[in-house]
Amino acid sequence: MNTFGGDEVGAVVIDVGTHTIKAGFAGEENPKAIIPSVIGTVFDSDDKSKISSYYVGNKEISFARPGMEVQNIFNSDTGEIQNIDYFEKALNYIYDERLGVKPNEHPLLMSEDPLCSSSGREKLASLVFEKCNIPSFFLSKQPVLSCFANGKYTALVVDSGHNATTVTSVHDGLALRQSTIKTTKVCGKVLDEDLRNLVKTKRGGKDILAPHQFTKQRSSQQPSSKSTKIVEHHIDGLTQSFNDYSINRIVGDMKINLLRASEDGAVQTGNTPLVSFELNDGNDIEIGLERFSICERLFNHEYGLAKLTCDSINKCDVDLRKELYSNILLVGGNTLIPGVPTRYEHELIRMAPNNVKVKHPLNTKISANIHTLSTSMGNSSTQSTMQTAVAQLQERKYASFIGGSILASLGSFQSMWISKSEFDEMGAAQCLAKKCP
User: Fold this and answer.
1) Range list of H helices, 140-187
2) Could you tell me the CA-to-CA distances from 269 to 263, 266, 292, 337 in Å, in that order?
3) Helix, strand, coil % (nearest 5) of the chain?
4) Residues 404, 109: contact at Cβ < 8 Å?
5) How far apart are CA 349 and CA 262, in angstroms?
6) How far apart (Å, rounded) are the C-alpha atoms in residues 74 and 399?
7) Distance between CA atoms of 125 and 431, rounded to whole angstroms?
C-alpha cells in the first residue's frame, strides 16, 4: 500500500460544487484556482452529434463564440456529475493550466455532495485512476470537511450555495445521511432570479445587457460617463445558454453589492433608503426595500434555513440534538450576505424547542459585525479585528476546501489514501466502502 507523507508530496485538493470548482494544494489556506462548474462546447459544423471544441475556465467561457453552448458539469439538483467527459476536461484544465502539475505525481483529495449515489462515486474513482492516473485518491463529504476547517468533529452544517441549500448533521467525523436535507427552493440562484426580474421591472421590461451585447461610443470630448452613448448590437449565432450565463454573472455581482437581510425580520418601507447601482451599460437603477425583501426567501417558515436546521436535527438521535443546536456552522455564499447570520440565529431561537440552548453559529461571531467595523477603521485593534472578520468570511466561503487542505496535510491521514494498487485489486465499490464511507 502506498502512503504519502504530507511534507514530502503535496496532495492536490479539489472541492467540487455545482457553481464553482476550487482547487489547490494541501496545507494552503485558500484555493489556488477557482473555475466555474460549466463547460463551453461547440458542435462540428458537418456532424452536429460531435463536439469539435471544448472551453473551460472563466476567460474561455466568457468569450462570445457563435454556436457555443454553456452547460453545467453537475446536476444542480443532486450535485452529482452529469457528464463525466466534461468533468475530465475540467480536471485536465485544472492540472495543466492552473496548478501546473502532473496528475500522476500527486495524491488527490476530492470533496463530494453528502447525498452522492454509490454509482456516481464509483464512476468518479474509475475516472481519476484509469484516465487521470492519480496515484492515490480520497473522497470526503463536504459537511465533514467544513467541520474539520473549524476544528469540529460534531456539528450541524448549513451549506447555502448557488444551486441548493444542504443541511447535514455530522457526528464524530461522519456525515449522517439520514439527517441530510437538501432543497433548491433556498439558494443563490433563486435570489439571482428575483434580482434579475426586479431589474427588468425597473427598466420597463428590458433585461440586463451582457458585455457582448453593447458598445460604448463617446459623444463628446469630455471624459464623462454622461457623454457616452450605449449602442446595442447583436452577434449572430450566440446561444441562449451563453447569453444567460453572461447576464447571470453580472447579477451575481449585483447580489454581493446590493442584498441585505433584515436582522430582526421587520423592514419598514419608509425607513429603507434608496441605493443607486450603476449597471455595466452605464445606466443607474435605484433599489430600496427590495434589497431586504428578496432575502426573506432564506427565512421562509416552511423551507427556510432555520426550518431546515430544525428538521435535520429532529432526524437525529435525541441524545445528540442539544449538542447540535450548540454547534452550528454556516457555510456557502449566501451566508456571506450581511445580516444573514444574525437573522438566522433569531429565527432558530424562535423555532427551536424550549429546552435547548441555541448558540450563535460558531464561525460567524466576528464577521457578523464586519460592516459596523468597516465604518470605524481608526485604530489598530479595529483594523486587526476587521482582518480577522474578512478571513472568517473567506473561511465560510471556502470551508470544504480548507477542511480538505487540513485533512490531506495531516501525517496521521496518509495511510487513509486509496492507492492505485488497492483500486486494481479490490475495485471501486469495495475501496470506497472501506475507506471513504
Assistant:
1) 142-149
2) 15, 10, 10, 20
3) 45, 20, 35
4) yes
5) 16
6) 20
7) 9
Cell of 393: 468570511
Q: How many residues does this entry show for the chain?
A: 437
Q: How far apart are CA 229 and CA 213, in angstroms?
A: 14
Residue 399 CB partners (closer than 8 Å, separation 6+): 145, 146, 149, 150, 159, 329, 331, 363
Q: Give, for 202, the enclosing helix (H) or strand (E).
A: helix 188-202
pLDDT in single tens digits along all 437 residues of the chain: 344 444 456 899 999 999 999 999 999 999 999 999 999 999 988 887 899 999 999 999 999 999 999 999 999 888 899 999 999 999 999 999 999 999 999 999 999 999 999 999 999 999 999 999 999 999 999 999 999 999 999 999 999 999 999 999 999 999 999 999 999 999 999 999 999 999 999 999 999 999 898 887 766 555 555 557 778 888 899 999 999 999 999 999 999 999 999 988 776 555 778 888 888 888 889 999 999 999 999 999 999 999 999 999 999 999 999 999 999 999 999 999 999 999 999 999 999 999 999 998 988 865 544 444 344 445 555 555 545 556 667 889 999 999 999 999 999 999 999 999 999 999 999 999 999 98
Name the CATH architecture for the domain at 188-296: Alpha-Beta Complex (3.90)
Q: Which residues pair with 230 in a beta bridge?
A: 216
Cell 470548482 belongs to 21
- Distant-in-sequence, close-in-space partners of 239: CB < 8 Å, separation ≥ 6: 67, 68, 69, 70
Q: Where are the alpha helices (DSSP H) in 302-339?
A: 305-314, 318-325
- Residue type at position 30: N
| Cell numbers given for 238 | 450566440
Give the three-class secondary structure for 385: helix
**Neighbouring residues of 213: CB distance < 8 A, sequence distance ≥ 6:** 232, 233, 234, 243
* Domain positions in the chain: 188-296
pTM of the model: 0.90
Q: Collapsing DSSP states into helix, strand and coil, what is residue 423?
A: helix
How far is the C-alpha of 349 from the C-alpha of 143, rounded, in Å?
23
DSSP-assigned beta bridge partners for residue 418 = 137
**Exposed / middle / buried, residue 390 (Cβ in 10 Å: 0-12, 13-18, 19+):** middle
